[in-house]
Amino acid sequence: MRVLFLTHRVPYPPNRGDRLRAFHILRTLTTAAEVELVSLAHDSQELAQADALQRLMQIPVTALRTTPIRNYMRAGAALLGTRPLTHCLLDATGFTTVLRGIVDARPPDVVLAYCSGMARFALDDPLRQFPTVIDFLDVDSAKWAALATTTAWPKGWIYRREARCLGRFEAAAARRVVSVVINERERATLASMAPSSDIHVIGVGVDLDGLRPPGPPIEAPQVVFCGVMDYEPNVQGLLWFVRDVWPLVRARRPDALVTIVGSHPTKAIRRLASDDHGIEITGTVPDVREYLWRSAISIAPLLTARGVQNKVLEALAAGLPTVVTTAVMKGLPTEVHTACRVADSRQAFADEILELLMMSGSERRAVAARARLDSMSWEAQLSPLSDLLRQASRHPGSR
Fold first, then answer.
1. Which of 224, 231, 209 is nearest to 257 (CA)?
2. Which domain holds residue 218?
3. Could you read off the pLDDT of 214-264 as tens digits, one per residue?
4. Which DSSP category does 245 fall into?
5. Cα dihedral sign, 360-335-382-260
6. Three-class SS of residue 47?
């Protein structure tokens, strides 16, 4: 079976949620199929990683650099019509030409499109003739709709428009192809948009061996958040946490410290750094595990969350109980619920943090150990995907 895999980022290194899943999909598929990868690259560093990934996976990898100024100009013009901005922004000159060359030289048996941003390429020439599976992960239009409710004009208006326009595309795509989503909540959302469509749930995994803490638990009152820090839900959640929750924690535990770990912090996030208030902003780090292992607890204070937050699974695997919002908890697998504390108000969120900080390190680690992660390896979670692609490849007329 020959699989053409389209991703909106080069999935290497696997240091953020969307790259992480795509990386493990590649690793899984290369054991059962011939795989060719075509990705967008958003900067020169990401473009260079394509060569490293090709050497690692021993598969053909093509990465094309996005053109931000051109793409933003097209997105601005698209506001007057109905085209999703996602499709304007996730684009690169020559992408279709590369796909046409692959079709002529190495036609795939099946196309796997990663996220709704790449689905448009799979459903258009020159790939429209091939069986297709779309891994939506989250239903992105639902995320934009939720963000619109917490964001002021004009961004709120743009988010509402994107929810509407992208939602129409997602519904039409789901009716034409085999769809994959990340959990039952996303399946229900997509099914409500495209009744009777063929939707499968394939969850996320966690690297248990790589994240297992190498030493005893930390006793210091160290809190950690990990995530890409130009991602709007992360930014909104951290601004709320630092403004409304953290002062309540510090009022009772002035020795408490919080480290915000993640690449591309926005100006608003960088301004949060304060020695006086115990707030550290790291930016990009070589290995996030070092920050997890030297912390006592993790937080996920997202006000808007779709899919599964990998940051929570990784924190639990690293031995950290985690305080989350209801929006985050709704997407988490039931296997980890007992290791998480849920709070939505600023006082409740602070109280949960303070209660965990009062525990000893071994007590906190015991809370994290309540998560039943043994069945959540990437290999186990992604094992149905190869069969799903193989079945799709045998029914070329199913679209």
1. 224
2. 208-368
3. 999 999 999 999 999 999 999 999 999 999 999 999 999 999 999 999 999
4. I
5. negative
6. helix
